[in-house]
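It would be a great kindness if you could assist me with a short task in structural biology. Thank you for your consideration; the sequence and its tokens are set out here.
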Amino acid sequence: MKKWGWLVQYGVTIALALGLGFLLSQVPLFHETIIGSAKLRASQCVRFLSYGGALFVLWRFGQRLAAELPALCPKMGFLGPVIMPLTTLIVVTASHPVCGQVLNPFLGKTGKGVYNWLFVIGIVSAALWLVLSWFMKSAPRLQAWEEETESSSKESSAMPIGAAHPRYMPPTREEPA
């Protein structure tokens, strides 16, 4: 279980960032404090920093999981190539409202349109990366693993009853002298 301890570290960090960001943004002081003339509240900045930090930690978690999954769980190793595209898709999609918290007060109608289109392009690109990673890397790995598993099960089932398995060494009996 020790080799999976880093999962808890990332999970607790993300939960703390989200929880503290939500709680601090509810404090009246943060609601009342306005930054500049654009009507940007301190509570929006706190949510942006905490939610953005949680998304960054989630993205770093995806990097580590993609690197370590094949060694930690070889049967699931075929998922390694799609972890970063999936994580990126989630993070880019969730970043739109997070960044909007601090950018919307400064953007006009045209600026909001450009902002939205940048995220549309980013989300579609991440989705395309995910699909291509599955098709070109994960699916062939899964197929190779299934063929390997199938061939090893055929070898063991093709043996006649009572025949020794090549990996099995029967105990030797010593004859009395």
